[in-house]
Amino acid sequence: MKTRAQIYEREAAALLRDISMYKVLTEDQLLRLHPGKPDKVRNLLSYLVRQNRVWLIDGCYCAAQNSMDDMDRGLLAAVWVLTDFIDQVEFHSVGDYPAKLIFFAGGEVYEIVHAAQGKEVLLSYVLANAGEQPSRYLVLVDDPAQITELDIPNVNGYCTVSPEGEVQYYQKEGA
Prior knowledge:
Layout: H1 4-22, E1 24-26, H2 27-33, H3 38-50, E2 55-57, E3 60-62, H4 73-85, E4 89-94, E5 99-105, E6 108-115, H5 120-128, E7 136-141, E8 155-161, E9 167-170
Parallel strand pairs: 6-7, 7-8
Antiparallel strand pairs: 1-3, 2-3, 4-5, 5-6, 8-9
């Protein structure tokens, strides 16, 4: 017979992986990353907080007590975009610059890139020189007006994320 710990071991490890990797996540993000298990996720999060394995600070689950001090808002927004595709995602992880996040879905590699206000030219230059097998890009912008300033190959779409986590998608005219 399996113990409670053995039953929840895989889910707890997955939650710890996500929180450790992304450093700061909201409960809603964690529920969306682990769909169909809201009660189990909430119980495990409560348990992990009691065990001091994660910290609940200002409504966010954090990998360390000081995680909120250097929270990456671009990464937090990228996780919201990831949650829109979670049913198709085979693997996801933090990306290397300029990608905030990388994921595999449908045999394709996608990178969520954050185009911070004022960094459009730099980002366009960096991504114009991608390798032989470039990823498909989802470009996260702070303001839809930035889209016309970006010239990036292999863009599947552009998006914005509201503070509540609502993702709005855009296509470039003529693309």
